[in-house]
Design a protein that fits this description.
binds iron/sulfur cluster; 10 strands; 422 residues; two-stranded antiparallel sheet; single chain; alpha/beta
């Protein structure tokens, strides 16, 4: 009933949408097992605590090859998850250990701050130590239809960010690292468990940005399969569950693939991630929702104080295509940035990921330092972003995407605020 109402949504009649999100849809409807269940069944052959980080990465490379073979065989129907034995230690444990090591010289994202976040004596750009805070979690009914469906996207909002966009549309949490409560990995797993048991179509890790919480998220995923939530953890997390009064009842049938707790994991990120973070997430995320904002390094440096943006983010997008992942690219139309950003990003997608699903978003509004009504308004730096995009700018963005032959209409038009269509 729950699965059939999701698959019955008309968006899935679009063959391109379906093809691009085939794996995600199969996991969401419990026809296939999530990647984390496969990773749990990939054995590793290395001493986790004793080995050097270099040695762990060597083992990760080997285990990833085994994972990809198993993933391929499960996708094609050649094997079934229950033909694979749960391993101890497994690729999941290796991912956990690697993120713990990375935390001591943080290279989760491309700032590559190299600070020891366990010690916490020095802070990196995100200003975080090792603890992760969640500001809220709930059934998100505002995401793309393929993610929100009819039960919502199980969205978990983490605090702080590694980019410094002066116009941030989520600044209450991205610029305030204290705006939330601490979630241990077990508590985070409990939140994911609850959202899925309430019928959410996916677990959507977002912020701020989730990358800066990589260690907490990866460890939480390692608990999902066997999770037996405690009352204490449930009582703690419920404090920030934004929709608990309206949420549907818990039902394990929503999350069941052959008796295993199953849910697709969604990485909703600015994509300013390190190569190492990408490698770890490849074996855990079933679907990706990357942002691609700026068409050049210069605009990103001025408006988001983020160096090498285009180089890093385009490289990570290209990896998704190379790896055969399921994803939807988000691009936010910004006023006065149609030529330097929108068109460049769209052209890049055409050249490198011509079949990708794209959401060209028209909801930009001036916020934070770009908002003339805000006392912190910085006209010199963000004056070009101090208004909404015009109708002409939105139409021109759509026209250009159409001219390029991009696959943007089904996702974009279903959701765009302005109701502008070509
Ligand atoms: S997550 Fe990124 S910004 Fe934060 S400390 Fe690590 S490398 Fe620096």
């Amino acid at each position: 009933m729950f699965n059939s109402s999701f698959t019955a949504l008309s968006i899935w009649n679009d063959s391109q949408v379906r093809e691009n999100l085939l794996w995600y849809l199969a996991v969401s409807t419990n026809e296939k097992p999530a990647k984390y269940l496969i990773a749990r069944r990939i054995p590793i052959n290395v001493e986790l605590k004793e080995s050097s980080e270099e040695k762990l990465w060597e083992e990760h490379e080997k285990a990833t090859l085994l994972f990809l073979k198993a993933w391929h065989d499960i996708k094609s129907g050649k094997i079934d998850i229950n033909e694979l034995k749960s391993a101890d230690p497994s690729l999941i444990d290796l991912n956990v250990e690697l993120t713990k090591r990375m935390l001591t010289h943080c290279n989760f994202c491309s700032w590559n701050c190299r600070v020891n976040r366990l010690e916490g004596k020095k802070r990196g750009v995100c200003q975080l130590e090792h603890a992760s805070k969640v500001s809220s979690f709930f059934h998100h009914l505002g995401e793309e239809i393929v993610f929100r469906g009819n039960q919502g996207s199980g969205t978990i909002f983490f605090t702080s960010c590694n980019m410094k966009c002066g116009f941030c549309q989520n600044s209450d949490i991205s610029k305030d690292k204290e705006r939330g409560i601490t979630f241990t990995p077990k508590k985070l797993a409990t939140a994911a468990w609850l959202l899925r048991m309430e019928g959410c179509h996916n677990i959507n890790f977002v912020g701020g940005d989730p990358t800066i919480h990589l260690h907490t998220i990866v460890e939480s995923i390692s608990y999902l399969e066997q999770l037996d939530p405690t009352d204490e953890d449930l009582q703690h997390i419920i404090k920030v569950k934004a929709d608990y009064l309206f949420a549907p009842r818990v039902n394990s049938a929503f999350a069941n693939h052959q008796g295993l707790l199953n849910v697709p994991l969604l990485w909703n990120s600015n994509f300013y991630m390190s190569d190492q973070a990408m490698k770890i997430l490849r074996t855990l995320m079933d679907v990706w929702l990357p942002d691609f904002k700026f068409g050049n390094n210069r605009c990103a440096l001025r408006l988001a104080r983020t160096p090498r943006y285009f180089d890093v983010v385009s490289k990570n997008h290209a990896l998704l295509g190379k790896w055969g992942e399921n994803f939807v690219i988000r691009h936010l139309i910004m006023p006065n940035h149609i030529e330097c950003c929108t068109k460049v990003v769209l052209k890049w997608i055409k050249v490198h990921l011509p079949h990708a699903l794209v959401n060209i978003m028209d909801q930009y509004h001036p916020d934070c330092f770009a908002d003339p009504n805000n006392s912190q308004f910085d006209e010199k730096r963000y004056g070009d972003l101090a208004r909404r995009p015009t109708k002409y700018e939105i139409v021109e963005s759509f026209r250009y995407a159409n001219e390029l032959g991009l696959n943007f209409e089904p996702i974009t038009y279903e959701k765009n605020m302005s109701d502008i269509r070509l």
